[in-house]
Write a structure and sequence with these properties.
The protein is of the alpha/beta class. The protein has 16 helices and 13 strands. The strands form 2 sheets. A 7-stranded mixed β-sheet has the order 9-8-10-11-7-12-13, with helices on both faces. A 6-stranded antiparallel β-sheet has the order 3-2-1-6-5-4, with helices on one face. A hairpin with a 3-residue loop joins strand 4 and strand 5 (78-87). The longest helix is centred in the middle third of the chain and has 15 residues, at 135-149. The model has no long low-confidence stretch (mean pLDDT 94).
């Protein structure tokens, strides 16, 4: 317990996002997106397994024997999402830091349109991005905003629960796979029988999850979910691609009707100092987007719709990168490495008097 407390306290104190523990190796941490070795002593296999047993609790007994996902609270410090797994014939574990306090929109520097999406309205809202891009944090901020400002039943299905949402004026039910329900599939199958106004699906992983999300949105629920894609157009393409070929035309029609918006995000190193800055791409489902979703030949043109619709609060990643560089928050070379069209971004930077 003393070793665990030292490791987790040190992780939080240096503002690391993740702690990695392996048998025979010193601890590693991820700071501002980069993995870093620590000066700690190598851990033994017994120490790593003891830490997993201690933090996993009852989840250890329910594990398959090869990997395990769970959450752990350390009073006065933070919550942690733990993922234990077997490697090299021994146990390893990664802890993701989850602060007690759900950040606000301002804390996260989210675009103002996110507040408009964080309301109880029928339809599907997606937050997309790579692993570690802050999707769970953004969604927690949106759900917490609704719980505080509206009177709703908010039902979440998570594996595991990360942020604890405040009830505020709302009734909040957070179901954790393995603790409150046997499987993710079981939770989704029963979700609409639990009378939610808002359904949060921790991650759309497969066709069954997508079907539940669409059905809930079609029947008047507000549905929020995370998705592992990099851009708005890739999000649409991958969602449609989950369906068998002969069902994709219908899937496009359904998605075009229920989609409210897509927020894609990445975390970029802050220029000249520690920390990271949020870069976003925003799609709002207007008439032009609906037509682009319905027609496969027009789907690839979604970025052009975003570029040309600033009055509807839409923008591409490259437009966001240009703004971040002009504001001095992100270095030009970092922006070019992240850009979808580096040559176009370089030209726009030069037009703004910035040479990279």
């Amino acid at each position: 317990m003393d070793l665990l407390a030292q490791l987790l306290n040190a992780t939080v104190s240096i503002r690391a996002s993740d702690l990695h523990l392996r048998s025979g190796a010193r601890p590693f941490v991820r700071v501002d997106g980069r993995i870093c070795p620590t000066s700690g002593e190598p851990l033994t296999a017994d120490q790593v397994e003891a830490i997993i047993r201690l933090t996993a609790g009852e989840s250890w007994a329910r594990s398959s024997g090869h990997d395990l996902e769970y959450s752990y609270d350390m009073a006065g410090l933070a919550r942690f999402r733990g993922h234990a797994f077997r490697q090299a014939a021994s146990w390893a574990v990664t802890f993701r830091v989850v602060p007690w306090q759900v950040p606000t929109f301002a804390d996260l520097r989210l675009p103002p349109v996110v507040k408009a999406l964080a309301v109880h309205a029928p339809g599907l809202t997606l937050v997309a991005g790579p692993t570690g891009s802050g999707k769970s944090t953004t969604l927690a901020a949106m759900l917490n905003h609704m719980a505080t400002n509206e009177t709703l039943h908010i039902l979440t299905v998570e594996d595991p629960v990360e942020y604890r949402l405040s009830d505020g004026n709302s009734c909040v039910s957070q179901r954790e796979v393995g603790r409150d329900v046997a499987t993710f599939t079981d939770a989704l199958r029963s979700a609409l029988r639990e009378d939610p106004d808002v359904l949060f699906i921790g991650e759309i992983r497969d066709l069954e999850g997508m079907q539940v999300a669409l059905q809930a949105a079609e029947t008047g629920h507000s549905v929020f979910a995370s998705f592992h894609t990099g851009t708005a157009v890739k999000t649409v393409q991958r969602l449609v691609g989950m369906f068998p070929t002969d069902e994709q035309a219908m899937a496009r029609a359904r998605l075009a009707e229920v989609l409210r918006g897509v927020l894609c995000q990445r975390l970029l190193p802050r220029r000249g100092t520690r920390g990271r800055v949020l870069g976003t791409e925003v799609l709002i489902n207007n008439y032009a987007v609906k037509e682009a979703i319905r027609d496969p030949a027009r789907t690839a043109g979604i970025p052009t719709v975003l570029e040309r619709s600033p009055e509807q609060h839409m923008h591409t990643f490259d437009q966001a990168l240009l703004t971040l560089v002009r504001e001095g928050l992100v270095a030009g070379d970092v922006a070019l490495n992240q850009a979808s069209s580096p040559n176009d971004l370089r030209r726009n930077l030069q037009m703004a008097g910035i040479n990279v």
